[in-house]
Amino acid sequence: MTSFYLSKPYDPPQAPQNLPLDRPWALLGGKSPQQFMKSYWHKKPLLVRGAIPAFELAKKLGEPLGSAISPEDLFKIAGDDAVESRLIQAKPWTFSNGPMKKKSIPSLETPDWTLLLQGMEARHPAAAKVLSWFRFIPDARLDDLMISIAGPGGGVGPHFDSYDVFLIQMSGRRRWRISKQTDLSLNPNLPLKILQNFKVEQEWDLEPGDMLYLPPHIAHDGIALDAGCQTWSVGFRAQSYKELLQEGLWRLAESLENIPELEKRFADPQQRATRHAEQLPEEIIVQLANKLKDLKLDRVETFLPGITAYLSEPKPQAYFDGMANNLAPEEFTRQLAKQALKAHPQTRLLALGSVIYCNGEDMTSNQAAQIQAAWRALAANRQFQGSIPKNGANSSLFEAFEAGWLVF
Predict the structure, then answer these.
(1) DSSP 35
(2) Are residues 89 and 115 located together in one domain of the fold?
(3) In terms of domains, do 334 and 366 share one?
(4) Could you read off the pLDDT of 85-106 as tens digits, one per residue?
(5) What's the total number of domains in the chain?
(6) pLDDT tens-digit profile of 169-185?
(7) Please, what is the Cα angle at 205 between 98 and 200, to 5 degrees?
(8) Which residues touch 222 (CB under 8 Å, ≥6 apart)?
(9) In 3D, which of 405, 349, 408, 396 has the Cα closest to residue 368?
(10) Would you say residue 309 lies in a domain?
(11) Sorting pLDDT into bands at 50, 70 and 90, what band is 61?
(12) 254 shares a domain with 216
């Protein structure tokens, strides 16, 4: 019988709302978040033994801890068609996308397979709590928490990521081999993005409670050493400048619909006779330049609302069940005075100054001051409790609740 059946599930704590940014954290190997961001973030790898001290303490007491989520629960989640899941097998390399039937997943003792489950913070409270530990990094950079569970020898092959990632060992052991190599060419003959010439420079075996941080483009290969090996990966996204500017421009173009002044037609009473009719008239160029200046389209702050709205959009697989929030407006207001309203785990909230965006929408413009304050609390703390105006039932707060973006 494998060890995880004999271990007690780890119960991760929720991070405090006000994180101590200048004090040493075990999670970061005795470094403060400020020190970590200055010396390691986006710069170099960091191996942390005992990042979660509870595992080592429990081991000394003879009561070893296992993952907060059992293999059985992970297999059930893999069968949900709203969850992004992948099954990867080696020798030869193959992969298939979920949802997964239980019988299609190998037994834990079977070698050379890995099951990957994305967005687990929305599927299990333990994953959401672990994610809360990393809010010293801007929410705009966060992607999700992925869990991999594997049989002995399981992995996805040597590869590199274009984003920062924290790899937390939760059950069993995993051997990590890394390299700072510049040759990132891929093997064209495989169905996965596997490096063609992986040259190991460093190697460690991570025990439950250990963590490895990797910045972008560090080549790495993780191989499960035990049955039921679980690694929890907290990943951070980084869009291309092209993507950010395209999305910002698209939303900016939409916002021009609300400016009546732009409905006026171009006029050129000063246009003179020309010998170069094929050339774009100077008058058009001058007038458009003036319009761009008037609309501040030559300044970055004009693009930021659209970019912030884009970055606050939920993942494509996100599903919100508004039908579960069936309170009448008056009941909603009363409930809010006695129970905390929380952001749904798949809801994304971002602030641009005092303006709050939720799932791609501006939620604070043209709202009462108390509604705006509620949204600011939700963005900062992921929850809000208090009184709102009687007409607050017609607010963006209640609309978001009806949509399932906010829950009690």
Answers:
(1) H
(2) yes
(3) yes
(4) 999 999 899 999 989 999 999 9
(5) 3
(6) 999 999 999 999 999 99
(7) 85
(8) 148, 155, 156, 167, 174, 175, 176, 231
(9) 396
(10) no
(11) very high
(12) no
Q: In whole angstroms, what is the distance from residue 369 CA to residue 114 CA?
A: 50
Domain enclosing residue 264, as ranges: 241-271+278-298
pLDDT value at position 1? Answer: 40
CATH code (residue 164): 2.60.120.650
Tokens 């929380």, residue located: 342
Three-class SS state of 179: strand
C-alpha angle 82-84-86 in degrees, rounded to nearest 5: 135
What's the rounded Cα separation, in Å, for the pair 156 and 225? 14
Using the predicted structure, report yes or no on whether residue 7 has a pLDDT greater than 90.
no
**pTM for this model (two decimals):** 0.90
Q: Pairing relation of β-strands 219-224 and 164-171?
A: unpaired
Tell me the C-alpha distance between 71 and 68, whole Å. 10
DSSP states of 206-227 = EPTT-EEEE-TT-EEEEEE-ST
User: What CATH number does residue 370 fall under?
Assistant: 3.40.366.30
Whether residue 76 is found in the same domain as residue 205: yes
Q: Does one domain contain both 258 and 382?
A: no
Question: Distance (Å, rounded) from C-alpha 203 to C-alpha 173?
Answer: 13
Asked if residues 328 and 274 have their Cβ atoms less than 8 Å apart, the reply is no
Q: What is the pLDDT of residues 255-298, one digit of tens each?
A: 888 888 888 899 999 889 999 989 999 999 999 999 888 888 87
